[in-house]
Amino acid sequence: VSDKEALLRLKKSFIHADALSSWVPNSSPCSDNWYGVICFDGIITGLHLTNLGLSGNIDVEALLELRGLRTISMMNNSFSGPIPDFHMLGALKSLLLTGNNFSGNIPNDFFSHLTSLKKAWLSYNQFNGTIPESVTQATHLIELHLEKNQFTGPIPPMNQTSLKQLDLSNNMLEGEIPKSLSIFGVNTFEGNEGLCGKPLDKVCTEKDKTLMPSTNETVQNSSNNNVIVLSFLAVITLIFVLFAYGNCSKRREHEFIVRGTESMANDQTVEIHVLSSRGRASDYSSHKGRLKKSTSSQHEKNGTGDLVIVNDAKGTFGLSDLMKAAAEVLGNGGMGSAYKALMANGVSVVVKRMREMNTLQREVFDEEMKRLGRLRHKNILTPLAYHFRKEEKLLISEYIPKGSLLYVLHGDRGICHNELNWPTRLKIIKGIARGMGFLHSEFAKHDLPHGNLKSSNVLLCDDYEPLLSDFAFNALVSTPFAAQALFAYKTPDYIQYQKVSPKSDVYCLGITILEILTGKFPSQYLITGKGGTDVVQWVLTAISEHRLQEVLDPDIVSNTSSLNQILRLLHIAVACIESNSEKRLDMREAIRRIQEVQL
Ligand SMILES: Nc1ncnc2c1ncn2[C@@H]1O[C@H](COP(=O)(O)OP(=O)(O)OP(=O)(O)O)[C@@H](O)[C@H]1O
């Protein structure tokens, strides 16, 4: 069986494989660049099939034919059922299955044959049962992600010195943490009520120390307790999610929000779940469009309460001011949900409830937020304040009335859109470039100084000066989550090579410029890639067919004598979306060229 036949068999085992339209019999996987197929010297070494909406029964036997296969990434798809027989692929180095719906037990000997395995990411699924004992036999393991599953029982005694990243958080694990793993931080283990020993504060009882896998009655009882606690939390969360979903259902259809189409229905309730200063859960609820705290504490009545002001450009305010504010749901982005709150002093702010920052230590979070609060640049939206609880992080910024570039470009074709002529669009692009330049010098050491540049994260001031928001989050979340939530992970850098760098921001800049010049909503923003326009493919095809002018938004070409300058900018964008990051412009050069474009 040839590699091609093996891949076609694999494709056949998928449901909803529309994204693999390049996998066809009359072409060749490596020389014709089949989507997601990574080759080295004509040998298939990796499959990177992430965020494609794939489901079905993965034909692992077909994969056995690919002798050079070392990396499989099928993250963020819709695969379900038991874990496929990947253990048959003994030479595998990376197995990345985060963000699917796999469930059930992982066979106890699953890792026994995977002796070369370096990365195992099985997080954000619904696996249950115990963590397979054989994980101790994967002696080259560097990264193990099992967070957000339903694993029960004790942690196997892993003592691989190779292990550098371990996340077992948010499962139902119990018993004493093996001493060899106490070098990992609290975050690695949190969200497992039954665990004890270092690095957690909880001292183990004799019973904890003797806990044995699965059959132990204590495991069962305590698991049941966990189920009850989790179900209770789930009910609370559900109320919140249902409301958010109700308000966002229109958005989900299109997978992006058109701000302003949603307002809070009078009889609906928003609940923001915030832990009190003593770690006890208390709810802030919004009823009839008003956020209010259901139990008040003296602490919050006095001044800023649990809010830390990092930038006093809009004065100081506290959590209690926010809770009394009139509220409106703005949307539910990759990083979390966003609300607009109009406070009694007339100041409107946006409150973002950040998901997945719960593994951060308070000191790290404080430090990062204060750093963000010190940023000053006319194209940067500097956060105003934050709220930290172990289970809850809120980030507060000024509300920008005109909304996002996404909304102005695609939301409706009213007054704002009419104002989006060539001079305005050039002003926006130059402002975005300046903002990116600032972030790239401020966060020069970060892999991703911005990490999430896209039109919904560009807000527009009244005079169309752009403000970049939601930047520098990569360092605050785990890689599996970043891969789901941040746009820079949708670039070929990550999809094909599993690596992000400052050049990934350049690619995102290229997409944003193409979006502004074509007026099309990029399919690249969508989780499944379905809908919108594949602006990269469209523009590249137009270039090869010498009909570049056709891709430009008629709204700007009909009314300008600057066609040459527009085309010049289009070529800069094309140099930013070069799929090979080595050949791609770097940020400094991209900005220099953009600033040279004239009206
Ligand atoms: N400060 C703000 N002022 C006005 N509108 C905002 C502000 N911040 C966010 N928005 C708008 O609220 C909506 C939801 O924002 P949010 O950041 O949660 O989602 P997103 O930008 O779509 O995704 P992501 O989480 O990946 O950034 C977006 O349309 C965004 O443009």
What is the CA–CA distance across the termini? Answer: 58 Å
Shape: globular
Q: Helical percent range?
A: 25-40%
- Please count the beta strands (DSSP E, at least 2 residues each): 26
Widest sheet, order of strands: 2-3-5-7-9-11-13
Bound heterogens, unique: adenosine-5'-triphosphate
List its traits:
599 residues, alpha/beta, seven-stranded mixed β-sheet, six-stranded parallel β-sheet, 17 helices, 26 strands, binds adenosine-5'-triphosphate
Q: What's the arrangement of secondary structure elements?
A:
Blueprint: H1 3-12, E1 14-15, E2 37-40, E3 43-48, E4 55-56, H2 60-64, E5 71-73, E6 80-81, E7 94-96, E8 101-105, E9 119-121, E10 126-130, E11 143-145, E12 150-153, E13 165-167, E14 172-176, E15 194-196, H3 206-209, H4 217-254, E16 269-275, E17 281-287, E18 290-293, H5 298-301, E19 307-309, H6 319-324, E20 326-333, E21 336-342, E22 348-354, H7 362-374, E23 385-389, E24 392-398, H8 405-411, H9 415-419, H10 422-442, E25 458-460, E26 466-468, H11 479-485, H12 492-495, H13 502-518, H14 535-544, H15 554-557, H16 563-576, H17 587-596
Parallel strand pairs: 3-5, 5-7, 6-8, 7-9, 8-10, 9-11, 10-12, 11-13, 12-14, 14-15
Antiparallel strand pairs: 1-4, 2-3, 16-17, 17-18, 19-23, 20-21, 21-22, 22-24, 23-24, 25-26
Helix pairs in contact: 10-13, 10-17, 13-16
Bound molecules: adenosine-5'-triphosphate.
